[in-house]
């Protein structure tokens, strides 16, 4: 189920590039022209150019654009510092803040007719999740060396056979739940909007879902970022 | 965002993922058990590893649920002390 009209796909088709009609294409070019890829690039370009245009040079007395970004970045900075401490925030702020901005914009862009959310494809969300999941283990190993395995061993030695599988399962569950939650919420929103557009678009039927969609988009971006922060800080902490 | 809205979104972010993580943990435990039974031991041990995997999955699900509760309990206590 896709949006009725995706304008980038139409432009690419007019240019003679192969746009896959299934979920993914076969050849490399077809895969690169898949809607979720092209819209990912659109979001990336949007973030890059909007930041460049509104920010330009930093000034002591902020103008309109700089004011907005100071609010956004400052708010995120406080939020991260609350949840994982100042030192970790300074280290990982660029990565997590980029994730937050990218996911929020990617979620919200799907509300505009003619656009789709890149996050409504499992490929995108799984890629994001894998980065987070791998880097939280890297952080753990960096902070504790090989002693990081104690995180999976529980408090006392005779509980190890019981707790080791539990810890490993709940660690892999992070991978699954983080990716599928974002994908599922956004895909559901997109599908519902597409169906309502087709059924009763003339009577503004999608409007209430769009209002909910704004909430879902913001909350899902927030959930993803909050969980990233929590996983990072748990990997950094000492084992119980 | 105003204060109430911000808190609402934060609460949703804190507790909104519990259900999905719960289900995901059970699914992974069960899938691991089925894999051990069918692929590693070629069905000779069925259905034992399936049940063991399911039990571990449920235990892991409760563990991740309690983890969320404990984490937020610490934070709430800190907030209460600040007031």
Description:
The complex is a heterodimer of chains A (240) and B (83). Chain A is mainly alpha-helical and 240 residues long. Chain A has one domain. Chain A contains eight helices and no strands. Chain A is globular, with a radius of gyration of 21 Å. The model of chain A has no long low-confidence stretch (mean pLDDT 84). Chain B has 83 residues and is mainly alpha-helical. Chain B has one domain. Chain B has three helices and no strands. In chain B, helix 2 runs antiparallel to helix 3. Chain B is elongated. The two termini of chain B are 22 Å apart. The model of chain B has no long low-confidence stretch (mean pLDDT 82). The interface between A and B is medium-sized, with 21 and 25 residues.
Task: Produce the secondary structure layout.
The complex is a heterodimer of chains A (240) and B (83).
Chain A: H1 7-14, H2 28-32, H3 35-55, H4 64-84, H5 86-109, H6 122-144, H7 160-200, H8 206-236
Chain B: H1 3-15, H2 18-40, H3 48-82
Helix pairs in contact in B: 2-3
């Amino acid at each position: 189920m896709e949006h009725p009209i995706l304008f980038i796909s139409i432009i690419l088709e007019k240019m003679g590039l192969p746009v896959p009609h299934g979920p993914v294409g076969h050849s490399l070019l077809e895969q690169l022209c898949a809607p979720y890829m092209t819209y990912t690039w659109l979001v990336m370009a949007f973030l890059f150019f909007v930041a460049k245009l509104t920010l330009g040079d930093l000034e002591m007395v902020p103008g309109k654009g700089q004011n907005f970004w100071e609010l956004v970045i400052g708010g995120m900075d406080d939020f991260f510092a609350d949840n994982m401490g100042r030192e970790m925030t300074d280290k990982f702020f660029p990565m997590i803040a980029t994730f937050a901005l990218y996911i929020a914009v990617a979620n919200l862009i799907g509300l505009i007719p003619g656009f789709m959310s890149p996050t409504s494809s499992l490929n995108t969300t799984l890629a994001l999740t894998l980065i987070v999941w791998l880097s939280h283990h890297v952080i753990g190993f960096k902070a504790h060396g090989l002693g990081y395995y104690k995180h999976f061993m529980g408090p006392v030695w005779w509980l190890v056979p019981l707790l080791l599988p539990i810890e490993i399962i709940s660690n892999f569950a992070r991978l699954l739940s983080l990716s599928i939650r974002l994908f599922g919420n956004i895909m559901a929103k997109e599908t519902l909007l597409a169906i309502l557009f087709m059924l009763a678009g003339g009577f503004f039927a999608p409007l209430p879902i769009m209002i909910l969609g704004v909430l879902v988009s913001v909350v899902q971006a927030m959930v993803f970022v909050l969980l990233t922060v929590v996983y990072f800080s748990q990997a950094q902490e000492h084992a119980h | 965002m105003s204060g109430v809205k911000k808190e609402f979104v934060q609460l949703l972010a804190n507790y909104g993922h519990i259900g999905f993580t719960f289900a995901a943990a059970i699914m992974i435990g069960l899938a691991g058990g089925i894999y051990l039974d069918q692929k590693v031991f070629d069905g000779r041990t069925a259905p034992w590893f399936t049940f063991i995997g399911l039990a571990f999955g449920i235990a892991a699900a409760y563990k991740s649920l309690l983890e969320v509760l404990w984490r937020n309990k610490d934070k709430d206590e800190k907030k209460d002390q600040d007031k």
